[in-house]
Specification:
Mean pLDDT: 90
Shape: globular
Strand order of the largest sheet: 1-7-6-5-4-2-3
Largest sheet: 7 strands, mixed
Number of helices: 11
Distance between the termini: 42 Å
Helix content: 25-40%
CATH topology of the largest domain: Aspartate Aminotransferase, domain 2
Strand content: 15-25%
Oligomer: single chain
């Protein structure tokens, strides 16, 4: 990080940031990506970009956007949250469809669907690709864009073997974090089309995210991609050993450890020691 080549990312660009953005866009199969100081800012930028003031966005009841972003959807974008109750650990296509309001002049219109994968509030639950595609299809049926809060999408991909572009193809915009599982001290990225990221650049600046010599931070994110992503399976194995050690001790319970096993367990390591199992159909 100390040796990073830097420029001015607000004016003519920072070369290290540009390298990171190009790499993330390629990894996710999107046209372009933008570097952000935090995942919350990236999420809120996507909501501003894709929603409309005076409408509602549909989000899982326990989503990070609902509980940990300080009502940013209302304060910044002028939209209300419509909570989607889950039949299981997280919302699925059936629950999303059931929560959609019939078109009516007496009800607020929906403008966006937000999905979180892995789902932090559900103990690290992975939404598998087939279900993610089903969620996307329901959103498209109602002509709604989709944002994917993929702060830990690296974990979902490593745990299931699903390539990142296949997950990312289920959403118009995707956020990934470099401080979740990759060890970077700071940073996230938002990826999407060229046109949407051009608009997001302005929104990011409006939110105070215009960074100057931000290559110093981007270098830490690049290091995580270069050296830590390939080690993530080891993190998952350690998380499994931790789960085996503490589950059932003094009333402790690892979320969904026993009930989400279908064909095989998939370890999902999360920050702060929280562990879950993914369900593979």
């Amino acid at each position: 990080m100390a040796d990073a080549e830097v420029g001015d990312d607000v004016l003519d660009g920072d070369p290290t940031v540009r390298r990171l953005e190009e790499r993330v866009a390629s990894m996710l199969g999107k046209e372009r990506a933008l570097f952000f100081p935090t995942g919350t800012m990236a999420n809120q930028t996507a909501i501003w970009l894709l929603s409309r003031p005076g409408t509602e966005i549909l989000v899982d009841t326990n989503a990070h956007i609902v509980h940990t972003e300080y009502a940013g959807t209302a304060a910044l974008s002028g939209v209300q949250v419509r909570l989607v109750p889950a039949h299981g650990a997280v919302m699925d296509a059936v629950s999303l469809r059931q929560t959609m309001r019939p078109a009516s002049r007496h009800s607020p219109a929906a403008s966006l669907v937000c999905i979180e994968n892995t789902h932090n509030g559900a103990g690290g639950k992975v939404t598998p690709l087939n279900e993610l595609r089903a969620l996307h299809d329901v959103a498209r049926e109602f002509e709604l864009p989709v944002h994917l809060d993929g702060a830990r999408l690296w974990n979902a991909s490593v745990a299931t073997g699903t390539p990142l572009p296949e997950f990312a193809a289920c959403a118009d915009t995707v956020m990934v974090s470099f401080s979740k599982g990759l060890g970077a001290p700071v940073g996230a990225a938002l990826a999407g089309s060229h046109e949407s990221m051009e608009r997001s650049w302005t929104i990011r600046r409006r939110f105070g995210g215009g960074m100057r010599q931000s290559g110093i931070l981007a270098a830490g994110a690049l290091h995580g991609l270069d050296f830590h992503l390939e080690r993530m399976p080891h993190d998952h194995a350690r998380a499994r050993r931790l789960a085996d050690s503490v589950d059932g001790i003094a009333g402790a319970r690892v979320p969904d450890r026993h009930v989400l096993v279908v064909d095989r367990d998939v370890e999902v390591g999360l920050d702060r020691g929280r562990v879950g199992t993914a369900r593979l159909d």
